[in-house]
Amino acid sequence: MRIHVELMGPLVDYLPEAQSGQTSQSLRDGATVADLLNELNIKRKVVVAVNDDEEKELEHVLVDGDEVLVFTVISGG
Amino acid sequence: MSYGYTGKILHVNLTTSKITIEKPEEKFYRTYMGGSAMGMHYVLKETPAGVDALSPENVLALCTGVVTGTPISGQSRLTSVAKSPLTGCIGDAQGGGYFPAEMKFSGFDAVIIKGKSPKPVYLWMHHGEAELKDAGHLWGMTTGDTEDKLKLELEDKRIEVLQIGPAGENLVRFAALISMSNRANGRTGMGAVMGSKNLKAVVVRGKQKPTIADPVRFKELQKLGTANLEPTGMDGFGKYGTPGVTTPQNKSGGLPTYNFNSGNFDKHEEIDGIKLYKEHLRGHERNEQNRFGRDTCFSCSVKCKRVTQIDEGPFKTDAKYGGPEYETLATFGSYCGISDMDAIIRANALCNMHGMDTISCGATISWAMECWEEGKLTLEDTGGIELKYGSGEAMVKMTELIAKREGFGKILAEGSKKAAEIIGRGTEDYLITSKGQEAPAHMPQVKRSLSVIYATNPFGADHESSEHDPAYKAYPERMEQIGLTNPQEKLALNEEMMRFAMVTQHLSSAVDSLSVCAFIFGVSFQLYDAKQLAEVLNAVTGWDTDVTEILAVGERRLNMLRAFNSREGIGRESDTLPKKMFKRPLEGGRSDGYVLDEKEWEAALEDYYRLCDWNVETGHPSLKKLESLGLGWVVVENEALSKVVS
């Protein structure tokens, strides 16, 4: 299946070749959020929103065509 | 033998020119740990009730913490406290860089300043000694020029300078203290307090490095910081700085736009941290921005500061004035509907040059822009400047006028709340202030625990006083360290979120008393967690503290701030949010339609008071709470306070 991924803020560095941290990622059917992060080599804490919805846990199962936003949690500035 | 701290507090009376040195016992340091709590000790002891913030009787305390100056990331911070000329409540501002460490090296933990010098002076603290020197030739100079002059005059390029610029001299109500010409103790107008005292600068130099009690354990903790850089993502934070959160904030519907009327700025990518890094940091043309476009604080490996330079054009800027943080990109950018990065960089530089808080300055201008757009201001009011949303030119021009208190800048220099009182015409409807301090770039409509923090925080709306809502769910192991184990759903505004707000507020308060960096020590994204903070503290001082004791110091500091306000007769009635947050739903983007419910918010407010053990009707801390924190003396020594606490 294919998932549209957008990495936000400093996470863009995990997709150095992509435009603005966006890519179409191929995953096995039944892959979870954790599998996606593993594929992207993201080991740090992040927040993941799927299809503009509430943040999802690592165990959440993705489906073909899902739009996934990956955030860092940084306050202040 | 004192470990970490020098054991010396400098007291300066500018009226009499008398300088004395106090040597408190170890217990004093352990009770307050430095920074804000230590400063509040002196403000509560030495200012009379009802003190005028710009009078000689106001006390300005500049305090480092017990670990400041030790060679580890995130310790070089200094807190300034005094009554605020912006809010009329207690004022409090932190700043970093190299000045705090150097002040420790000069032989002093803190300097407590009272009175007013008959003529401009600067305080020279060096190698265990201190003296006042004439500053008449520096008065009126911008920060960069002042620093250059002082280095020549004192024949030492390695002095560190904490100063006011012309804005502080002109008593702009949100004037800042500036070090290195680009680091700010920004908020609440501490620069105006210093200006009112005719004190141009505090200059420090020394070689007295703090003694560390357990150097072996300390070295392990240093190495832990380096090892933590990648797993915490702080390497990425260092690379893009706080500006890296601009686009994520927008995506979550929380980038304040058009004076807080929206959380979505369609041009956010023009002003975000990735663009700043790639196209605006010094050295970007040769791909050398990591080397020339970033800077750091004493001993910090994160290196999150920005350096920008514009060589020509209307927004020409010198690199010595640094580069914008996220807050600055928002307040001079999206708050004003501006997508011109060069204009924002120039405004940031003007604030560093003249010594002003970028948050209050940008947000005061965005308030004025909304007034303009709503037809409440005319060209006659603004001296011919069209204060339209989106005009970088108008924004930059107004920033200069505010610093100089010229034209319409004379009114805006009062801060937006007082400006609204002066102008009238219903302009108070557009304010985004709490206690008269303009809201920073994190939106209570989106991160709801901030709705109570902004309203109740003793020094006004502040985003660095607690953790933000998403952190509760995202960092369960770290949150557990401070007893938070029940994360709530997004947008919840209930008792558990008030507990989250209060407990993380206690930790932030401790961080501001230890005077360490909130990006390095904390219970969410930071390099070190709360337990590791206790370990660093113990390794330096030889004490056996733990997270519980650290939180108690934070609660003590928060209650000292609150007690000051109570003494001044300020209680629940001042714990308010801008009207528009209840009346005007946000427009566009992910937070379209978001608005706060007044009844729900009031219930949360009262939950928060109960959790804090503050009187629900008056908002004043209970006597029992103050005494439990060792603050009974504050009530005894402040008659006005004893009349309102019970």
SSE topology string of chain A: EEHEEE
CATH class of chain A, named: Alpha Beta
Give the CATH architecture of chain A: Roll
Helix content of chain B: 40-55%
User: Major β-sheet of chain A, in short?
Assistant: 5 strands, mixed
Radius of gyration from the alpha-carbon trace of chain B, in angstroms: 23 Å
Supply the CATH architecture of the largest domain in chain B: Orthogonal Bundle
* Main beta-sheet strand count, sense and barrel state of chain B: 6 strands, mixed
Q: Which fold name is given in CATH as the topology of chain A? A: Ubiquitin-like (UB roll)
Query: What's the structural domain tally of chain A?
Result: 1
CATH superfamily of the largest domain in chain B: Aldehyde Ferredoxin Oxidoreductase Protein, subunit A, domain 2
| CATH homologous group name of chain A | Beta-grasp domain
Mean of residue pLDDT of chain B? Answer: 97
Question: What is the count of β-strands of chain B?
Answer: 16
Strand sequence of the main sheet of chain A, in spatial order? 2-1-5-3-4
The total of helices of chain A stands at: 1
Q: Biggest interface: chains and residue counts? A: A-B, 23 and 42 residues
Mean pLDDT of chain A: 89
And the CATH topology of the largest domain in chain B?
A: Aldehyde Ferredoxin Oxidoreductase Protein, subunit A, domain 2
